[in-house]
User: Fold these one by one.
Assistant:
Number 1:
Amino acid sequence: MFFINRNNNNAAGMSVGLMGGTFDPIHMGHLVTAEEARQQFDLNYVVFVPTGMPPHKDGEQVTLPEHRYLMTTLAVMSNPSFYVSSVEMDSEGPAYTIDTVRHFSFGEKEIPELFFITGADAILDIFTWKDYEELLRLCTFIAVSRPGYSLEKFRETLDKHCPGMKHKVHLLEIPALAVSSTFIRERVALGKTIKYLTPEPVEQYIKKHGLYVPTG
Ligand code: NAP
């Protein structure tokens, strides 16, 4: 569980990256992304926030939050700047990003500068997210993509919906994102190796719990 002492005034001078995703499972692309964002945006910490019940994936089959949380914890163990938060898993009902960001905003004083890091594809739909205007005021988005992805059209739409907010979304290109969670799930289902695509403890966890193996 990640927390910052709310009485610690240093929180005001801190930059924190919230790495939001389903992480089903977490992989090297996510870890490279978080480390690159930490360095490029001078973040003190990156907190991985696995989704609980994703509001936009109602009815889709997503692995139990407990498994995704534990795999994420195993994956970040060796990086002293990485943490994992269970805040979205602990919330009853759908977990919205605005509630997560409010959780890390700590009230009126001692507010760290917040960055929300996630896939550019997910951010394209931000206009459908709960309280997106407040979200854009409270944090800066880092939209992560593979090289070659253009956010120009998105920026135009953003300008139409929220004039003056263009600067609140940055694009970060990560070649290692050629790896995806879908790719890993498909390989496990086919009995193929996932070695070096995800940290070894995660690979072992998937094996031990028989995740992503088709049943029946
Ligand atoms: P998704 O649809 O599962 O993923 C979209 C794409 O982005 C996939 O290619 C995915 O690759 C990639 N991606 C996802 N998270 C990433 C990350 N942290 N770094 C790099 N690439 C990433 O998206 P999702 O995981 O469900 O949602 C992403 C975040 O947006 C979550 O935190 C979710 O809660 C938030 N969200 C909030 C709302 C709302 O508040 N209403 C609505 C939608 C999404 P992989 O599959 O390889 O990860």
Number 2:
Amino acid sequence: MSLNDPITAPWWRDAVVYQVYVRSFADSDGDGLGDLPGITSRLPYLRDLGVDALWITPFYPSPQHDAGYDVSDYVDVDPRFGRLADADALLEKAHALGLKVVVDLVPNHTSDEHEWFQKALAAEVGSSERERYVFRPGKGRGRKQPPNNWHSVFGGIAWEQLDDGDWYLHIFDRTQPDLNWRNPEVRSMFEDVLRFWLDRGVDGFRVDVAHGLFKDRNLRDEKVDVTGDGPSSRHVASLLEHDTKDEPMWDQPEVHEVYRDWRRILDSYDGDRMAVAEAWTQTPARTAAYVRPDELQQAFNFAWLLAKWDAADMADCIRRTFATLDPVGANPTWVLSNHDVVRHATRYGGGPVGVARARAATLAMLALPGSSYLYQGEELGLESVDVPEELRQDPAWFRTGVEWRDHCRVPMPWKGTRAPFGFGGRKQPWLPMPAEWAGLTVEAQTGKRGSTLELYRKALKVRRTFATTAPREVEILDRAKTVLAFRRGPVTVVLNAGTRPVAVPKGKVLVNSGRLVDGKLPPNTAVWIRQA
Ligand code: GLC
Ligand code: MG
């Protein structure tokens, strides 16, 4: 199998993967939370949109302290989202429609309600039950100080003390104890979990916090020059900074052994099963290590998401992406939004300008070789929402008082003129939907000239015919500082990040994110042009 041969290339090479945030996609039983049967009922929408696959966020049994990223049983379905049979039905229908299905795997931590953690709590200090997690004695007099100086990504210290004095590590919420990946039991449990879902027919996994599994063996202090216990934004911000930070809790070399094992398991199944790493490492080169030939197939390219609305920044990111992936022979991925970040329409300034820029950036992205990840609702031009304080649910909000992620998790508007816009039920769902979304529903945008939904449909359709067969080489063209332009074989892509209209090369316009004016490309717009 060659990655570069269009006939034998694996399905994921150029796949457009649509992220479904379970609780906010479609609610079949009207309880205000999305669910698996809801997703199944909307699969034809995804097929018609033109994506190749969906990634479904965690739907496993969970107390839902972190929207399902706190798993209490890895091989079942949370009753709020359905039953195991609903997962099977979803897989079957997706496959019948030609869609692949990627599920989320959360190996860094379990829920505190997981059977293992419950047993650890009941067992003694130093017991084998506690060895599955990261328990340590405290420091100082009476062992009242935490074992080291690490902070939780969600704010506050990363340790919790039990009544018997022992402390456990939680890099995220207190209800998400970190597993001890130096314990072979942990490794073998996850191998079983992989096989369980592979046997049921999933096509791949999105590996949550893939860079987190191993911690420095001695759990040594992190060298820091800042004080205070605000939110540790390093998880997200590190890529923006070029100086390397000391991170004894992230990206340890041992983690790669695990992915080599997983790769062997994936390869032992038919159908090009894959895994994509969520690895917020410090540099693109560090992320490239996760996609070496015998490790995972993909890693999210967060550098693209973090690039500013700036042509030089975007061009730089594209160049760097290839420069770091080519040496390991891996295929790029691109992503602009997900359930953890500000929606890109809002990030680029919000309002009509933000939406125009978001459309342009997406169009440029979809012309690049490799796999693109879309986040539900971006095809409607949705923006992040101001969720009232008393309704916020993100554990990071509770730990820091900073609104971090609820804004991008508001449910999908499907149809009608009043909330919940066909999402399900009669009332506002778990996070309320803004009245202004009446004009942005799938129904309102379908068949509407110039709508964001129709732009996505068209771009995905054109992409199918050209992007997968066009040469993989991307030639960045020298243009004005404020214009991103690149060529892939016969197609030239131009994105205008400046303030004045710019000329575009002659040729056939394949798809454009906004109207050309007198043959020129206005600001905040992108176009694909085929030259003879
Ligand atoms: C990942 C998920 C995020 C979750 C965290 C802890 O970053 O994307 O939503 O809160 O891991 O599992
Ligand atoms: Mg429901």
